[in-house]
Design goal:
With 728 residues, the protein is an alpha+beta fold. The chain contains 18 helices and 30 strands. GO terms for molecular function: iron ion binding; oxidoreductase activity.
C-alpha cells in the first residue's frame, strides 16, 4: 500500500539540484546570446542633462548602448498632463531614486559589457531629495484600505488602570536570495520567450504584454527553478521588460543578470517602519484598549503597503482597538513584500509592547497572553475554523521549562553571561487562491502533472508529487510534476504561504476527477464489481480501482483502459475557496520561546535555544515543514540581531549593498532550534486541511528575542537590529 501524506519525504528534485541538472534562469543556453549590463544613476532625484556613450560604444565587443534617447518604447504613452512617473526603464530623462537604471550596455561577453558600462559618462541636474522616513512623517497618507477603529479606543485608554506607550523602529531590510535576478529573452517573429527568475510567470506575462504592446498569448515565461526569492520576485521587476525590449531592438537573444549590489535597488525591500503602540489594561491584565499606529515608507512614484497592522486586529480579545497604517513617499525605490510582510513587523511591536505591559502589571508574559486569549475572531466575531494556539502555549512552556523563569531582569546567569528568556505569539493567514492543475494519467500507471506555480525553495515539486501520488494510488517515481511555465494551467504567485492550499487542492481535484472517470468507464460494464458505488467511495491504489472499505471489490485499471481502448486520461481542475470559508476566520498560529545569553562586558548576544510550536492545519511533509520553520527562525534571528540596510541620506544611496556589509546569520550564530507542530483537523480551510507556514515561522521570533534580551539585561531595545552598542 502506498500512502505519502504526513510522511517525511525527501525532495524529488534534490538530486537535480545537487548535481547541477536543475537549471536556474541564467543557466539556460541560448545560441548567439548577447550580454547586457545595467548602468545605474548616482543621484536620488533630478534629471539627466547629458549621457555620453561614445567611449563605451567604441569599447571591444560592444554591440549597442541603450539609453532613454534610443530605447524602444515600453508601456502606454503617458497623458500630456500626467505627473512624472517611473513605471518602465529608460523611458525618460527623469531620475526617481539612486540606483535607477539609466543605460543598458550590450556586448558579446559579460566582461566586455561590464567594462564598457564604466565608460558611460552622465551629467545630472540634481534636485533636493528626501530618503529618511523620519523627515516625511508629516506627509504620510492613510493606507489605501483603512479599517475603522473597533469600539472607542481613546476613551478606553484614558480609563485603563495600567498603560504602556512605546515606539518601535525597523530599518529597511533586503531579501538577498542566493540566486541573483536574471532574464534571457529571445524573439521568433512576434513570439517572445523569456526565462525569468520569478514567483509568478503569469504576472510577468501580463506585465510584458502591457509593456511591449504584444498579446499575452504571444509571450512565454519560463521559470522552473528559483534559488530563493522571499517576495523579491512577486511583482514583475524592471529587468525583464528591459531585456525583452533590448532583444527586440537587436533582433537577437539578450541576457541580463543583476550583480549583488544591483539587487539592492532592483527588486524592492522591507520598508522602514515606525510604530507607536499604546496598550491599556485593567489591574488583572485584561486588555481594555490597543492603539497601534504604524508608518512606513514607499517610493515617490508608486504607493506600496505591506499591511503592517492587518493581522494585529485578530490576535487578542480587546473590545477597543485602532490600528491605522500610514505610508510616506521617499525618493527611494518602491518597497515590496518580504517574508512574513507586515506581520513580522507589526508583531515585533505588539509582542514587545505586551512584554512591557507584563512587567508593568507584574504578570507573567505567558499568563498575560492567556488572560487575553481570543476564543473567536475579535475583529469579525466569527468562530475560528480551527485554533490550537492554547495548546502551542502549553506544550512550549512545558518543554522549555518556562515556569522556572525568574521574572526579575538580570537575575539569571550562566557564569558571567546574563541569561534571558522571552516569548511571543505568531499569526499568519490561512489563505487559498484560485488555481488550476492538469493531470494526464497513462495506461502504464504513470502520470504527468502540471501547474504554472513556482518553487522558490519550500519544496513545491515534492509536495505536489506527493498529493498526486496519494490520490492516484501511485509511487512517487511514477509521477512527474512540472511547474513554472505559462504553457501550464494558471496558478497564483508563490507568496502568502498559499501554494499548497491552492495548487495542492487543484492537484487533488484533478486526481479525484480521474478516479470518477475510471469508475464511469468501469460501470459501463454490466458485470462491474463497482456497480452502484459513489465516486467518493472508491480510490485508486497500486494500479487498482477499489471500494475504500471493501478491497475485495476492485478492478485492474490497466486492463480497463486496454479493454476500452484508452491510452491516457487528461483532466484539468480549477480549485477555488469554498463558500463555507466565509463563515469562519481562518488563521495559522504559533508560540515562540527563546533563550539568549548576553556578555555584559561586550554586549554580544547569542540565541542559545529556540523552541517554536506551530499550529497550521495538517502537515503533509514533516521533513520539509520542519525545515521551513527552522529557516523562519534563522531569518528571525537575523532580523532581531543583524539585518539593516544603511542609507546615506546625503546621497539617498543604499550603502550596505553587499553580503560583506549587509549582515545575515552564519552557522556560528545558530544554536539549538526545535520546531514542533500541533496538528489541527480543519475541514473548512481547503480540501487538504493545510494552512500557510512559510511566513508564520519567523513572525514572533524578533519580538521573542527582544523580550529575552530585556529579561537578560534590563535594557529594552525598541529599534532593530539589537547590536552590541545598543546594550553597552
Amino acid at each position: 500500500m502506498t500512502r505519502y501524506l504526513g510522511k517525511e519525504t525527501t525532495r524529488v528534485d534534490g538530486i537535480a539540484k545537487v548535481t547541477g541538472k536543475a537549471k536556474y534562469t541564467a543557466e539556460f543556453q541560448v545560441p548567439h546570446v548577447a550580454y547586457g549590463f545595467i548602468v545605474l544613476s548616482t543621484i536620488a532625484k533630478g534629471r539627466i542633462t547629458t549621457i555620453d556613450t561614445r567611449e563605451a560604444e567604441q569599447a571591444a565587443g560592444v554591440v549597442r548602448v541603450i539609453t532613454h534617447l534610443n530605447a524602444g518604447k515600453l508601456g502606454k504613452a503617458p497623458a500630456a498632463d500626467a505627473p512624472a512617473q517611473w513605471a518602465w526603464p529608460l523611458q525618460s530623462d527623469r531620475v526617481f531614486f539612486n540606483g535607477q537604471p539609466i543605460a543598458l550596455v550590450i556586448a558579446e561577453t559579460y566582461e566586455q559589457a561590464r567594462h564598457a558600462s564604466r565608460l558611460v559618462k552622465v551629467a545630472y541636474q540634481a534636485e533636493a531629495h528626501s530618503t529618511d522616513l523620519q523627515t516625511v512623517l508629516a506627509q504620510a497618507k492613510p493606507d489605501a484600505k483603512p479599517v475603522p477603529a473597533r469600539g472607542n479606543p481613546v476613551a478606553a485608554m484614558q480609563q485603563a488602570a495600567v498603560k504602556v506607550n512605546s515606539e518601535y523602529h525597523i530599518p529597511i531590510e533586503h531579501h538577498n536570495p542566493i540566486e541573483p535576478h536574471a532574464a534571457i529573452a529571445f524573439w521568433e517573429g512576434e513570439q517572445l520567450t523569456i526565462f525569468d527568475k520569478t514567483q509568478n510567470v503569469y504576472g510577468v506575462q501580463q506585465h510584458l504584454s502591457e509593456g511591449l504592446g504584444v498579446p499575452a498569448e504571444n509571450i512565454r515565461v519560463v521559470s522552473p527553478f528559483v534559488g530563493g526569492a522571499f517576495g523579491s520576485s512577486l511583482k514583475p521587476n524592471y529587468y525583464p521588460s528591459l531585456t525583452a525590449m533590448a532583444a527586440r531592438e537587436l533582433k537577437r537573444p539578450v541576457k541580463v543578470v543583476f550583480t549583488r549590489a544591483q539587487m539592492f535597488t532592483g527588486h524592492g525591500y522591507r520598508p522602514h517602519t515606525i510604530q507607536k503602540v499604546a496598550l491599556g489594561a485593567d489591574a488583572q491584565g485584561k486588555l481594555q484598549s490597543i492603539i497601534h499606529e504604524a508608518f512606513h515608507n514607499t517610493s515617490s512614484f508608486e504607493p506600496f503597503s505591506d499591511a503592517t497592522t492587518s493581522f494585529l486586529r485578530q490576535v487578542y480579545a480587546c473590545p477597543n482597538l485602532d490600528a491605522p497604517l500610514k505610508i510616506a513617499a521617499t525618493d527611494l525605490p518602491t518597497p515590496t513584500w518580504m517574508r512574513a510582510p507586515g506581520a513580522v513587523s507589526g508583531m515585533f511591536a505588539l509582542e514587545s509592547a505586551m512584554d512591557e505591559l507584563s512587567y508593568a502589571l507584574k504578570i507573567d508574559p505567558l499568563d498575560l497572553r492567556l488572560i487575553n486569549y481570543a476564543e473567536v475572531d475579535p475583529e469579525s466575531g466569527k468562530p475560528f475554523s480551527s485554533k490550537a494556539l492554547r495548546e502551542c502555549y502549553r506544550m512550549g512552556a512545558e518543554k522549555f521549562g518556562w515556569r522556572q523563569r525568574n521574572p526579575e531582569p538580570r537575575s539569571m546567569r550562566d557564569g558571567k553571561l546574563l541569561v534571558g528568556w522571552g516569548m511571543a505569539t505568531s499569526v499568519w493567514g490561512a489563505f487559498q487562491q484560485s488555481a488550476s492543475a492538469r493531470i494526464t494519467y497513462h495506461a502504464d500507471g504513470t502520470a504527468n502533472v502540471a501547474s504554472a506555480t513556482s518553487d522558490i525553495g519550500p519544496g513545491t515539486y515534492t509536495v505536489m508529487t506527493m498529493i498526486a501520488a496519494e490520490f492516484l494510488g501511485l509511487h512517487l517515481d511514477q509521477v512527474k510534476f512540472e511547474l513554472g511555465d505559462t504553457r501550464q494551467p494558471r496558478a497564483p504567485a508563490q507568496g502568502g504561504s498559499w501554494t499548497t492550499s491552492s495548487v495542492g487542492s487543484a492537484v487533488q481535484g484533478a486526481a479525484l476527477t480521474i478516479t470518477a472517470r475510471l469508475l464511469d468507464m468501469a460501470n459501463k460494464d454490466a458485470g462491474s464489481p463497482l456497480q452502484g458505488v459513489a465516486a467518493a467511495d472508491v480510490e485508486m491504489l497500486d494500479g487498482r480501482l477499489r471500494v475504500k472499505n471493501d478491497s475485495s471489490r476492485s478492478i485492474d485499471i490497466a486492463e480497463l483502459m486496454k479493454r476500452t481502448g484508452t491510452t491516457e486520461i487528461t483532466e484539468t481542475f480549477d480549485s477555488k475557496p469554498s463558500p463555507e470559508r466565509a463563515k469562519f476566520a481562518s488563521l495559522a498560529h504559533g508560540a515562540q520561546f527563546v533563550e539568549v545569553k548576553v556578555d555584559p562586558d561586550l554586549g554580544t548576544i547569542k540565541v542559545t535555544r529556540v523552541l517554536e510550536i506551530t499550529a497550521c492545519g495538517k502537515i503533509l511533509n514533516p521533513l520539509a515543514s520542519h525545515s521551513q520553520e527552522i529557516g523562519g527562525v534563522v531569518w528571525g534571528i537575523g532580523m532581531a540581531l543583524e539585518e539593516a540596510t544603511e542609507v546615506d541620506h546625503r546621497y539617498g544611496r543604499m550603502m550596505t549593498a553587499s553580503l560583506q556589509h549587509y549582515h545575515v546569520p552564519v552557522n556560528a550564530d545558530i544554536h539549538s532550534i526545535e520546531t514542533i507542530f500541533v496538528e489541527e483537523d480543519d475541514t473548512v480551510v481547503n480540501p487538504l486541511g493545510v494552512k500557510g507556514m512559510g511566513e508564520l515561522g519567523m513572525v514572533g521570533i524578533p519580538a521573542a528575542i527582544a523580550n529575552a534580551v530585556f529579561h537578560a539585561t534590563g535594557k529594552r531595545v525598541r529599534d532593530l537590529p539589537i547590536t552590541p552598542e545598543k546594550l553597552l
